[in-house]
Amino acid sequence: MGGLLFRLIELIGLVVIAIYRFATERSSDGQRRWVFQDPGKANPDFAPTAQRWTVAPPPSIEERVHDEVGALQQIDPDFNDLQFLAQVAGRYQAYLACDADMNADGLTAIATPQFIAAYRGRVAHWKMAGMSRVVHDMKIVSTAIIKIMIDGSRQAIIVRLVSTGVRFTQDIETAVASEGSPQSDYFTEFATFVRPSGTTTPKSAGAGGEIHCPSCGAPTTAGEAKCPFCGTQLTGTGGTWLLDHVSASAYT
Fold first, then answer.
1. Phi/psi-derived region of residue 147, left when phi > 0, alpha when psi is between -120 and 50, beta in every other case
2. Domain ranges of the chain
3. How open is the CA angle 196-191-89, to the nearest 5 degrees?
4. Which of 195, 162, 115 is nearest to 205 (CA)?
5. 25, 28, 126, 202 — which has fewest CB within 10 A?
6. What angle do CA 61, 245, 227 make, to 5 degrees?
7. DSSP readout, 125-189?
8. What is the pLDDT of residue 183?
9. Strand 24-26 to strand 32-34: parallel, antiparallel, or no bridges (unpaired)?
């Protein structure tokens, strides 16, 4: 009985030695080291799913905007992004001129009632605090469409505008500057322009040509809400984009 037990122990020892030699390798100093191998490297079929699957990168802003412009052109075939940005630049310059004069009434033709009311509130706050606005030498450096949103009530386009010039608020008595700097600087703002759902761009406006009133035929300016000659409402048949929001961020 003792001999059988001895032979069993000897057999177990041989198995352990074989496993040790299989799972280790001899290093340069003559000592054996355990070898741990990544199962994914030994057999690619066992590699984690996240390592084997390739996830497509999200589209760039330019690619997304290109698709959004295409979606808008599905319902407004004559919409032209370059013509739109030219119109935006003119309206933004008009907004800056009103800001220099703290003139909320001057925004009537270029902004929504909500924007005008909010700006009127800012002017009242400045005057109550004894502040005034200083805005001059403002030049637009670049414009770019950031996002287009379409729903059942309106169409909205967020535009990034980079401009340079002097723009700040100052204390009327002390001339101490705030909300800006008396030195010329660069400004980046995100302006949201909106128009009612169903509004379309006249063919002449999309091509950069002259726009005519559908009622009297008189020439009008792109984006005018009414014909200056006969008073016909152009919203819905013209390219009326009104300034609705201005922020330092595209997300506020």
1. beta
2. 2-52, 61-247
3. 90
4. 195
5. 28
6. 105
7. HHHHTTEEEEEEEEEEEEEEEEEEEE-SSEEEEEEEEEEEEEEEEEETTT--EEEEEEEEEEEEE
8. 93
9. antiparallel
Cα–Cα distance, 158 to 189 (Å, whole number): 10
Contact 95, 111 (CB under 8 A): yes
CA 6 to chain centre: 80
Q: What are the average pLDDT values for consecutive 10-residue runs of the chain, which has 252 residues?
A: 62 64 54 51 52 74 94 93 94 96 95 96 96 96 96 94 96 91 94 91 58 70 65 60 91 73
Task: Report the C-alpha gap between 111 and 45 in whole angstroms.
Answer: 61
pTM of the full predicted structure?
0.68
Q: Phi/psi at 154 (nearest 5 deg)? A: -160, 165
Residue 83, CA distances (Å) to 34, 42, 174, 202, 222 in order: 71, 60, 44, 12, 9
Q: Quickly list DSSP for 36-100.
A: ---HHHH-GGGS-HHHH--PPPPPPHHHHHHHHHHHHHHH-TT--HHHHHHHHHHHHHHHHHHHH
Fold that domain 61-247 belongs to in CATH: Nuclear Transport Factor 2; Chain: A, (3.10.450)
Q: How far is CA 240 from CA 22, 157, 202, 207, 234, in A?
A: 79, 12, 10, 16, 8
Q: Which tokens sit at 51?
A: 């390592």
Token pair listed for 70: 């295409």
